[in-house]
């Protein structure tokens, strides 16, 4: 009997996987035709396919399978984003990037939290917990958007890098506020700062070590005996970078991103692959990242709780509107204007003000808050999903239009 139940469960999951791939393929084709980022269409179709509407896709958010898909998918997309980053660009904008990924998260948390406190009438600590949960941007959303919409390097790579590096800050701030909300901790600025520096340093070092080792094994003139297995090496290293850094109580996402940077800039360290091997690796990474996007955003859409979201819809929309139109612009100008070295133009800063999608990472934090029964967790989860829907459906779909208006599209982009 147990065997029969297991087989039926396996068939159900296999059916769900097949449906997601089929839906994702059609949506990907549609996104190319109508020139809209595919993540927005994946999210919308996922909402229609979920239990609240048709029930075609029904994988519970708290299930181990869902967590594996979200975790590995986000890691692989983050690796893909890191591989597209150029070191020379990071050297030029590192001051702004550091400010956005640290001070910027605190600014977003404060403005969003204060707005939620007054608009929704919730306890102040719950409001700040909400602000911290949605403060960080999402690489799983931003990376694929910039894969499809070619923006000038220093702008796109600054926003992508910010989305990778601010996850650690967002998580640390969220857990610090959570400790106060649960009555298990006090505010310690020095302790939080030390924790952030430690997580960042260990995460970066883990990514550097694994990135160099991977480049050595697949692209070294003498030791590249695994060049033929480069795609498999990337899978192993992505998992190893995340788990290695996480095991050291550091940022696994940061480690994966830095690993991607190392592999994407292997020529700078004297490593070169043959044109054929390099082309094969690039095709594999692009295809795998596409499949991960399909699964992540169709599943994310299918898990939207419409009843919960509707309960706090009015206040949530106001909070997210302030979040998008006030908090983000204020934060960008505070972090970018003082950086005289980067010489940001007004158009570049305006574009960065608009481009900050919320997605998988905030959703995961909101899910964690529900799991530990944090005060106001249901309200926070509701507003988080409203933020995901509004930023992806409004900001992501207008990215190309805004870039064209501001003159930031690369040459040859229609």
Number of H/I helices: 18
* Element-level helix/strand string: HHHHHHHHHHHHHHHHHH
Q: Which range best describes the helical content: under 10%, 10-25%, 25-40%, 40-55%, 55-70% or over 70%?
A: over 70%
What's the number of structural domains?
1
Secondary-structure content class: mainly alpha
CATH architectural category? Up-down Bundle
Mean pLDDT over the residues: 85
Ranges with pLDDT <50 over ≥5 residues? none
Q: Roughly how many Å is the radius of gyration?
A: 21 Å
Distance between the termini: 59 Å
What is the subunit arrangement here?
single chain
Number of strands: 0
The rough form would be described as globular
User: What composes the largest sheet?
Assistant: none
Q: What is the beta-strand fraction? A: under 5%
CATH class: Mainly Alpha
The CATH topology assignment is Na+/H+ antiporter like fold
């Amino acid at each position: 009997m147990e065997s029969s139940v297991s087989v039926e469960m396996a068939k159900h999951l296999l059916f769900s996987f097949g449906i997601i791939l089929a839906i994702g393929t059609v949506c990907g084709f549609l996104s190319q035709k109508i020139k809209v980022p595919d993540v927005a269409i994946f999210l919308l179709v996922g909402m229609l396919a979920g239990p609240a509407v048709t029930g075609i896709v029904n994988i519970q958010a708290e299930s181990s399978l869902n967590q594996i898909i979200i975790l590995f998918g986000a890691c692989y997309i983050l690796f893909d984003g890191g591989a597209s980053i150029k070191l020379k660009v990071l050297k030029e904008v590192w001051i702004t990037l550091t400010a956005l990924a640290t001070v910027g998260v605190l600014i977003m948390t404060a403005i969003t939290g204060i707005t939620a406190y007054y608009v929704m009438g919730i306890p102040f600590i719950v409001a700040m917990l909400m602000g911290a949960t949605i403060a960080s941007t999402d690489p799983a959303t931003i990376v694929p958007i910039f894969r499809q919409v070619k923006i000038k390097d220093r702008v796109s790579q600054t926003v992508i890098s910010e989305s990778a590096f601010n996850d650690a800050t967002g998580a640390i701030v969220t857990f610090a506020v959570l400790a106060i909300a649960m009555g298990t901790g006090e505010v310690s600025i020095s302790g939080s700062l030390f924790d952030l520096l430690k997580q960042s340093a260990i995460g970066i070092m883990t990514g550097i070590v694994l990135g160099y080792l991977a480049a050595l094994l697949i692209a070294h003139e003498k030791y590249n005996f695994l060049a033929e297995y480069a795609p498999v090496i990337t899978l192993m290293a992505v998992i190893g970078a995340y788990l290695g850094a996480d095991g050291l109580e550091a940022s696994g996402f940061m480690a994966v991103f830095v690993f991607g940077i190392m592999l994407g800039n292997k020529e700078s360290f004297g490593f070169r692959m043959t044109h054929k091997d390099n082309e094969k690796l690039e095709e594999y990474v692009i295809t795998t990242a596409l499949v991960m996007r399909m699964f992540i955003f169709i599943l994310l859409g299918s898990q939207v709780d419409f009843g919960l979201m509707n309960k706090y819809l009015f206040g949530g929309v106001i909070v997210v509107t302030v979040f998008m139109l006030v908090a983000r612009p204020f934060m960008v100008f505070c972090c970018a204007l003082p950086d005289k070295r980067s010489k940001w133009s007004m158009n570049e800063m305006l574009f960065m003000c608009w481009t900050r999608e919320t997605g998988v990472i905030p959703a995961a934090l909101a899910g964690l808050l529900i799991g530990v029964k944090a005060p106001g967790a249901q309200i926070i989860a509701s507003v988080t999903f409203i933020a995901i829907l509004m930023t992806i459906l409004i900001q992501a779909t207008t990215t190309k239009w805004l870039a064209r208006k501001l003159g930031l599209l690369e040459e040859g982009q229609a």
